[in-house]
Design goal:
alpha+beta; globular; binds zinc ion
Length: 548
């Protein structure tokens, strides 16, 4: 940031905690049409700012000074920063400059639909999108198409322009309304819902109008286009905390995988669970709809495919893609499914978070790169959203006065470490067991690294053998028990992700060619696994069943 900007910017207000509350709006046909046209103007305005901003970004990057700035080594931080901010200044690539740009673009008929502050928030949004490209965090920006439209618009304050008000009524409880232009949209408020009542008792910072496509125009609350409107209130304060949730005092080690989680507290039952297994049927239904849409798109646009059925390259002047009615219906249905899945996932995450917090509020886990995961295990990361789970856990733990320690993987290497001999050995991904020549194991690897995390000293993050000797005596049995319970659930028909080392038919056995494994394999062929750690009960396999 240049010095000039820093002076011109208002002193930033102290950041207060915020939370969101969403309420459905009632819009009659006329109101919905007018909202639609305001949002359409918003969309065009956003695209205009984005396009002008994109031009600035291109020019800035084409400047030889840009390459020179990039060549400055990262160790010279100040110089590097100064070079880049001089460039940003020259080409007008900053949030402030975008606000100026927006002023110039909001003229004549646009101004009737769009208040100055809303135009400013849209300009900020365009700037943030382009800045991600500038910083290398995104490859390109997306212009909002006419078909999809702008799905939300927000204000910065709640005293002018688009705002939310609570109006007292002669009888009963107050009525909430979103005011915008001359419209007055009634919000549906369930005052008996403690979350809603809690939210409305707090000060509104600003309101955001959200438009979502319903699964069909006949869906409840939808207008003739099948759109539903909501108001999202950004409120000052902390979200409602349900009183029934207890908070424990244990230290817990977590090992989060793309589709599973191992939870090992210092002194309570350990758990190995699939992550969001309940979402899989929904995800399958969405993939089916996706394939259906692809078929419908093909049927309606044969000219876009060559004789081998491949999509042709799109150039300028190519005919537009046609959208059949059936396709539009499938698209709405898919969007509705996706929303339902997201809501379901959120509630599953919430349940898991509260189960964890009920045991303890000091949590140690390895810091993982979710973008890296997304590249490797795209589908399950997209479905289970482990990054979102950790974020929610972090917030909840903080609100109960605990801490979540994310330890850097590079220094701890918990998934490779063995506390018996202190060596780190890289395990290939398929190897779901930790078993070491020094006598530790076999133990499921996720549970083992969660155990290592649980007893890590947050002050000194390098694991040491001495720390683990005593805890291991008590923990080994707990880890085995957690794994057995997982096997049992798999045998009862619950689908387990492959990464847990348990298939539906029963336990997969250690793949290591050591003696213990051979013995185990041999025994399991007869349907009995009794030799493993001298355990009396059969492990995972029902009599007469074979795992090989
Ligand atoms: Zn070892």
């Amino acid at each position: 940031m240049g010095k000039k900007h820093a002076e011109e910017r208002k002193p930033s207000r102290a950041k207060t905690p915020t939370f969101l509350l969403e309420l459905p709006l009632v819009a009659d046909a006329g109101q919905a049409a007018r909202l639609g046209s305001h949002l359409e103007v918003g969309r065009q305005f956003y695209n205009a700012v984005l396009s002008a901003g994109q031009r600035r970004l291109r020019q800035m990057r084409a400047d030889p000074a840009w390459q020179a700035a990039r060549a400055i080594p990262r160790t010279q931080r100040q110089e590097r920063r100064a070079a880049f901010s001089a460039l940003r200044e020259r080409y007008g690539f900053s949030e402030y400059a975008f606000h100026e740009l927006a002023k110039g673009l909001r003229v004549s008929w646009l101004a009737e639909h769009l208040d100055a502050v809303l135009a400013q928030t849209l300009a900020s949004r365009a700037y943030r999108a382009l800045n991600r490209v500038c910083l290398g965090k995104a490859r390109r920006v997306r212009f909002k198409s006419r078909g999809r439209g702008l799905s939300s618009i927000e204000n910065k304050r709640n005293d002018t322009g688009m705002r939310f008000v609570l109006e007292p009524r002669a009888e009963g409880r107050p009525q909430g309304c979103l005011l915008w232009h001359d419209e007055k949209l009634r919000a549906l408020i369930d005052w008996d819902d403690p979350v809603v009542a809690h939210g409305l008792a707090h000060e509104v910072k600003y309101a955001r109008l959200v438009r979502r496509r319903a699964s069909s125009p006949r869906a409840q609350g939808a207008d003739s286009e099948g759109e539903r409107y909501y108001v999202q209130l950004v409120l000052t304060g902390l979200p409602h905390h349900k009183p029934k949730h207890a908070v424990g005092s244990q230290t817990i080690g977590l090992d989060l995988g793309p589709s599973s989680i191992a939870i090992v507290p210092r002194e309570a039952e350990a758990r190995l669970e699939p992550l969001c297994a309940e979402l899989r049927p929904d995800a399958r239904a969405i993939r089916r709809l996706q394939r259906k849409m692809e078929r419908q798109r093909r049927a309606a646009n044969p000219e876009h495919y060559d004789e081998k059925g491949r999509a042709k390259k799109r150039g300028k002047g190519a005919p537009r893609w046609k959208q059949s009615r059936g396709y539009q219906a499938s698209r709405r249905r898919k969007a509705a499914r996706e929303r339902r899945l997201a809501a379901h996932r959120k509630s599953l995450h919430g349940q898991l978070v509260y189960q964890i917090v009920a045991v303890g509020h000091t949590i140690v886990t390895e810091k993982i790169s979710y973008t890296g995961w997304q590249k490797r295990y795209g589908r399950s990361v997209g479905l289970c959203a482990p990054g979102m789970l950790i974020d929610q856990l972090k917030r909840t733990v903080a609100s109960t006065g605990g801490t979540l320690h994310e330890v850097p993987t590079r220094s701890t290497k918990l998934s490779q470490y063995c506390h018996g001999c202190g060596q780190t050995v890289n395990k290939p991904l398929w190897q779901r067991w930790h078993q070491c020549a020094c006598g530790i194991g076999p133990v499921q690897r996720d549970l083992y690294s969660a155990f290592l995390a649980a007893y890590l000293d947050p002050a000194d993050l390098t694991p040491s053998c001495a720390r683990y000797v005593i805890p291991w005596e008590g923990a080994e049995a707990r880890l085995l028990a957690a794994h057995e319970r997982a096997i049992q659930r798999a045998n009862e028909g619950q689908v387990m992700p492959r990464s847990m080392g348990i298939s539906r038919a029963g336990a997969r056995l250690p793949k290591s060619p050591s003696e213990a494994t051979q013995e185990l394999l041999f025994l399991s062929k007869r349907g009995k696994v009794e030799a493993w750690k001298h355990r009396p009960e059969p492990l995972g396999l029902r009599p007469g069943e074979s795992s090989v």
